[in-house]
Amino acid sequence: VELERLGIQQSVDAIFPPAELATDLSVLPVEVTVVDEAEIAGCDAVVTRNHFEALFDVEWVHSTQAGVDRFPLEAFAEAGVALTNSTGIHGRTVGETVAGYLLAFARRLHDQLASATERRWERPAWDEAFTLPGTTACVVGTGTLGRGIADVIGSLGVETVGVRRSDEPLPEFEAMYAVADLERAIADADFVIAAVPLTETTRGLFGAAAFERMRSEAYFVNVARGAVVDEPALIDALEAGQIAGAALDVFETEPLPEASPLWEMDEVVVTPHAAAYTRDYYRDVGELVRDNVGRLERGEALANRVV
Ligand code: NAD
């Protein structure tokens, strides 16, 4: 790949100002410009959040997100376009967000914030609040997110087990289960946390059977993708008191429709697909892109390559 023109597609402005990344990448020996949809075809490489048909005309596309489920991977392969993602940078941010959810539930902060917005001075019932040491979490998906989550909640005293495709152990987790044993892995956990990519095998992974298997005191957390959960089954489980509550950053339909019952549930925390947000996001993406430009110059294989 001969790189002369690298475009920063405007869709990245959902996460950071495109110009910040352009400035960060201006040290590169290539022309770096912010491009709209019509200008994509004039680039050799493009950094983007969204998919566009014109991306099939460039040589290399870098996704600012870790999940590439919105990109048509087969069509990229057919067009001979390399696709790289931003896996590797979200462990600490998402880990801290998940720790925040767990602390909110344990210390009843979500409930007290809801009361405070209505100027109500209302304490938790005597037996509602708890502390995290001694609780257990089951993290499903043990990549960057899963390990970052285990690291941060582990430092708060949560005993964490993992679920991955094999049951081979990892140092961040006290025990490991294969995904075929999902229902056994989640049965005793106080917190079940989804951190898998959305693929044909993980679509609907958390359905009625999983929520039936969870403890009625347990909380479900989704920072992966909405479609790894059967959302109607989750709503049923919450309404039936089959599980205690949920913290959800991702949904089947985003933005979450105003009519969704999830907005109104006292024990459900809704966040707007922002678990990985940080003012350093553009720097972290910039580092991945600079590293890969260096690899191309040296004739080496791209890092984080998906297609
Ligand atoms: P990653 O590539 O580092 O890790 C993904 C892990 O999932 C890998 O270890 C992989 O082996 C494993 N995996 C794949 N298929 C599996 C299956 N069927 N069962 C069990 N494990 C399986 O990616 P990451 O950075 O950890 O991100 C994971 C996903 O989380 C992304 O694909 C994205 O959808 C989502 N994500 C969401 C946010 C957010 O803002 N909420 C931020 C980053 C990532």
Query: For the residues shown, what is the average pLDDT?
Result: 98
Could you state the order of secondary-structure elements as H and E?
A: EHEEEHEHHEHEEHEHEHEEH
Low-confidence stretches: none
Trace the largest sheet across and list its strands. 8-7-6-9-10-11-12
- What is the terminal separation in angstroms? 15 Å
Q: Work out the helix count.
A: 9
Secondary structural class: alpha/beta
Overall shape: it is: elongated
Radius of gyration using CA atoms only: 21 Å
Q: Helical proportion?
A: 25-40%
Bound molecules: nicotinamide-adenine-dinucleotide
Largest sheet: 7 strands, parallel
Q: Got a strand count?
A: 12
Which range does the strand content fall in? 15-25%
Please provide a written account of the structure.
There is one protein chain. Strand 10 (219-222), helix 8 and strand 11 form a beta-alpha-beta unit. The chain has 307 residues and is an alpha/beta fold. It is elongated and about 65 Å long. Helix 1 (18-24) packs across helix 9 (281-297) and helix 3 packs across helix 5. It has nine helices and twelve strands. It has helices at residues 18-24, 73-79, 91-107, 109-117, 144-154, 182-186, 208-213, 231-239, 281-297, and strands at residues 5-9, 31-35, 45-48, 60-63, 82-84, 136-140, 159-164, 176-178, 191-194, 219-222, 245-248, 268-270. The strands form two sheets. A seven-stranded parallel β-sheet has the order 8-7-6-9-10-11-12. The chain has a five-stranded parallel β-sheet with strand order 2-1-3-4-5, sandwiched between helices. Bound molecules: nicotinamide-adenine-dinucleotide.
